[in-house]
Design a protein that fits this description.
This protein is of the alpha/beta class. The chain has seven helices and eleven strands.
Length: 223
Amino acid sequence: MKDGEKTQGDVLLPIGGGDEVGASSLMLRFGGRRILLDAGRRFGSFRVHPRYDAACSVLGMDGLWELDAILLSHAHGDHVGSLDRVVGEAPIVSLYATRVTLEVTEIMLAEVLLRRSCVPKKDASGLLVRSAVERTLSGGHPKDFGEAFRIGPISARLFGAGHIPGAAMIHLESPSHSLLYTGDFCDFDQFTVRGCSLPEDLEVDTLIAEATYEERDDFATDS
């Protein structure tokens, strides 16, 4: 296969959260589209954001404004806390999530937006980012669990992940491949939200699963 052909294939880049807790974010070239799954931030670290610039370089993008879509799994800060950074650079990119996630994300970012707006008048960058975030969230595309929608040739659906209200697993299917990104999930019912739920006949070629507690045996149950 020629180098030029390789660059057109599917690419998965864990640019945050791949080997850590925090800054969860995945950049994909999938089915000919460039997609961002989650936009988290790190806490207690000098490097707050995922490696957006490096991902753009690998995918041959001039910047985040060349993304085709952003999909959010849920509204915790380690999954949406750098969304202001993303939409400040890509204010018109389509954003997809459940309605609850969009609403809670707006609340989660309120402090960031307020802080960004408190800048000297000679520097309007903070106000521009605030405006971009508010516009992107208000213009986001809320999706119900199981509702099919399209991103070019890609068929996408969100499925209940448990965890917190609105949390979703993200399923993407191109003509040649299918992918499931679980985000954080919980497989048992809680007081405020039911456990995760997936169709029994769901086809998945690539599974990207949350594994925060993979080495803790106190979460194991008797079979």
